[in-house]
Design a protein that fits this description.
The complex is a heterodimer of chains A (245) and B (199).
Chain A (H helix, E strand, L loop, with lengths): L2 H6 L3 E10 L2 E11 L3 E6 L5 H9 L6 E6 L8 H4 L3 E4 L12 H11 L5 H11 L15 H14 L4 E5 L7 H13 L3 E6 L10 E6 L2 E6 L1 H19 L7
Parallel strand pairs in A: 3-7, 3-8, 5-6, 6-7
Antiparallel strand pairs in A: 1-2, 1-4, 8-9
Chain B lengths: L16 H17 L3 H18 L1 H10 L4 H14 L2 H23 L3 H11 L1 H5 L4 H32 L9 H21 L5
Helix pairs in contact in B: 1-5, 2-3, 2-5, 3-5, 4-5, 6-8, 8-9
The chains are: A alpha/beta (245), B mainly alpha (199).
Protein name (chain A): ABC transporter ATP-binding protein
GO molecular function, one term (chain A): ATP hydrolysis activity
Family (chain A): Belongs to the ABC transporter superfamily.
Chain lengths: 245, 199
Amino acid sequence: MTGAFAQMDQGIVLRGASLVIRGTPILSDLTLALTEPRIGIVGQNGSGKTTLLRLMAGLVAPSSGSVMVDGIDPARDRKGMLSRLGILFQNPDQQILFPTVAEELAFGLRQQGHRDAETRARAALAAEGRADWADLPVSTLSQGQRQWLCLQAILLMAPRTILLDEPFAALDLPTAARLTRRLATLPQRLITISHNPAAVATCDRILWLDSGRIRADGPPGAVLPAFTAEMARLGEADADPHLPR
Amino acid sequence: MLTLTSPVETPLHRWPAGLKLALLCAATVLLFRLTTPLPLAAIATALAALHLLLGRSIAATALRQLRPLWPFLALLALWHGLTGDLAQGATIALRLITAMALANLVTMTTRLSDMLAALDRLTAPLARAGLPTRRLTLALALALRFIPVLSDRIDTIRAAWTARSPRRPGWRILIPAALAALDEADHVAESLRARGGAG
């Protein structure tokens, strides 16, 4: 990133951000400045990973503290967020809004004010060698193909940062490998959630989230071994004692 | 799965959506003008022949899509059997079948994006009057996308019930199905919000 672009890019900044849902604290007092090109967030089920992603995307507002993306409040300025931040939901079926592939791709572009949204969507499909997909009903696509469609819909909107919620969770091994390769080539900042340390091992920075707080924050070499060891310890503690080893 | 537009290309696919909608309107008006069974039967036969001309798979799909009509037809037969007015009963039944088959044929041979574009043009005067017509087309697209999704969810709930119960689920899945629909609505709202909202 160079020049004016880099100046505008202040990344995602959280200042004392907390989120309480019906009296239960989900995220507590998070202060972070996220500017690295590849960031991984690890944690157990229920540690608040997905909620943190939704908070950064502006899909929920913090109960206290603040969240800023390039100096803009993502929960208020939705239009401004479209070119700054895209989010890939864990379940593609909860992301896809339209009955056909071309419409799903065109929607985001239309939201950004492009009048030639449909033409662009079809051109993008053709560029990917999938021109014949344009009028396919999304219900006929496989899980991996739906996820590809969701990612493509976000990439067309060209946001500066993409948030990925467990992108590999539902994919078979070849599809996951393809997605990994694809993601590696993207110029965007990627923030990836995973409970699997291997999925984020090549990131520049790892956040370990534990009960809505940051337990560790640093390069993968420092954070992931400790995380893996702790997850193994927890697994031991919960093991059924009557089962043979 | 409910895939409304037929993947089998027919000559009708290439007709403009607006023309097909206009013809459908005119034909439906005509159907309601005819009050004796004979001309209606002739139209129904011609329509059946047209379906067969377009191909066996289209004709089979069209026949399947008429299935929701059977309860109404049974009711008609019962009522007009009791009152003895069979000609009137046949007129209404033929009219229902033909009108529904025609509408289905238009749906099957029109791509959704063409249909939405035609709807956009039709509602353009309303847009000039300041009504939010884009929301109307968005709502239509969402409905078409989520009918199959919800019917899948209901199938899953039914399967989960059947897997653990010797009895058929019946009405008991209504509440989980309704909750699933609300849940789905939350996700749709979130996905819309993530990409700039409904505006």
